[in-house]
Predict the structure.
Amino acid sequence: MAQPPLLFTPGPLTTQLETRQAMLNDWGSREPAFIAMTAELRRRLLDVAGGHGSHVAIPLQGSGTFIVEAAIGTLVGPSDALLVLTNGAYGERMIEIARRLGRTVEALRWPENQAVEPAAVERALAENPALTHVALVHCETTSGLLNPLAAVATVVARQRRAFIVDAMSSFGALPLDLRETPITAVLASSNKCLEGVPGIAFALVEAAAIARAKRVAPSLSLDLYDQWRGFESNGQWRFTPPVQVVAALVEALRLLEAKGGPAARCAHYAANFRTLADGMARLGFRLFLDESIQSPIIATFRMPQDPRFRFDDIYAALAARGFIIYPGKLTQAQSFRIGCIGALEPDDFERLVAAVADIVAELGLAAEPAAAVRKISRQEAHPGTMPHSTASSASPLSAVILAAGVGRRLGNMAPKVLLDFAGKTLLERHVAALHANGVRDIAITVGHRPDLIRDELSRIGALDCVALIENPRYREGSIVSLAVQRERLAAGGTVLVMDGDVLYDGRMIARLLGAVPENVLLLDHAIEPGDEPVKICLRAEVIVDFAKTPEHAYDRHGESVGFFRFSPSMAAALAQRATAYVQAGRASAEYEAALRELILAHPDRFGYEDISDLPWTEIDFEADVARARRDILPRLQEVAHA
Ligand SMILES: Cc1ncc(COP(=O)(O)O)c(C=O)c1O
């Protein structure tokens, strides 16, 4: 028989031989041997999560979705209200299930590359006493994102609500202890980290909660209360059980225990993940998630920008070599996924990476240069997330500062970047903040009085490290100031673009560099009134407009600081668009118009970083100068020259 392919998928997955061999038998579902097997299954499931004494194990025929539907239908009653915390496809599926069941459901959403925030959950629960239940996906398999389960559980318990956790792709590997973490019901299935074969799902439900749930479920076969009563009354399944699947799962649970339990399994998967992520990074593939929220369950890689890179070709070539990866994407962003769970060893991942390298070379493709930005993690890693990679290699990083304007509204003779605040000009502050964050390649677009800017650079000793790019048409729109920087923008590095006339806290640069999205806009929720501020408009956390007077419907908005981070390909696209504007005689446009077009064309490639907590102000009018001195200056965290 030919060697079976290896599955690098999030389930069904590669199982151990003993698990498959355990199925080579027939059992009558009501015979004592099978009843004993069912009892062992239920006991072992509670063992995995420390649920003895508090919870009961209720296995159910079917896939993972069946248990989610059964749990919501059984535990959330017609007069209850469920709050689903969601940042991916499986959170959205819970909402759909609750709706179909006719249950009252509300959603609290985060972007698919951001973890659920416990403080926001607490606020939502405090504000809405009608909510009775909260549901969370522990590991969102859409992306591999690990949500902060323990912190959310604490908040939900403090607010005295019931808590349902979809632990489908974490149960059996990632830390979960029901003695320490208050959870009403944990849901999972046989064919993920437990490494069984597909066909059974299960819930571990608080004994008191299931006892209260008689006749709540609108379904017969998905009634967890009745299923539980069946097991308790005669040890049997209510309806025909998948006997071989039960046998395989019991064997898989025995193997899990024999090999050191969930902690050892987690370490094993982490070694798989590390081998994969580091190997792919060497080939230039970038992870979709920041590693502070990355689980070792599944790795999502950004799709390379090269349009010749077709996932189907790579998939087929890998499959022909015996490596099955996950076909298709679930994230909204362009990406592909490779599972790290199952009976696979780091060696298997080495071989997979070698195969990817061969295929990429054979097809004459190159992935993007590896992670362009220095990752600065603001989020404390929670248990189970990946230790920070040391393998990320940096692509060139530069900053473009737009400082050509006349500062008409200030009646100013000198360029606005030369405004002095407490003995330091805006220009000196820019250079210090960029240097402190490792950005050493800086180019300023100058127009009005470049001599004064040169003098200031000379005074602060930065003339050698800051390039001056002249914009002779500085009296026209700011699009020209961007277009003259086309070479730097298209040079293949990550580029920060910054308005020059901003007094700001230097930590903003770290935030801009550390933000997760491929392309980042800095956003402040406190928005100045009127048409002057450029607004970043969001609908369901997606940027749907970017303008002084937005045209698209949005559910919330913030003010743009005027600082941006662009990936190499997006910076090049921006250069092209700005140049096209000027060539088409549209030189009176502001650069935001070109950027807006790119954002609207590629909403999945842009995100924002909220810096509402940091002090800043744009300087347009005299009143801004006074306000900056009075309100902003005293709050700034100074950065030392590096
Ligand atoms: C977190 C999560 N929830 C629910 C499901 C649905 O499980 P199934 O496809 O077995 O119905 C999955 C499947 O991957 C999952 O990862």
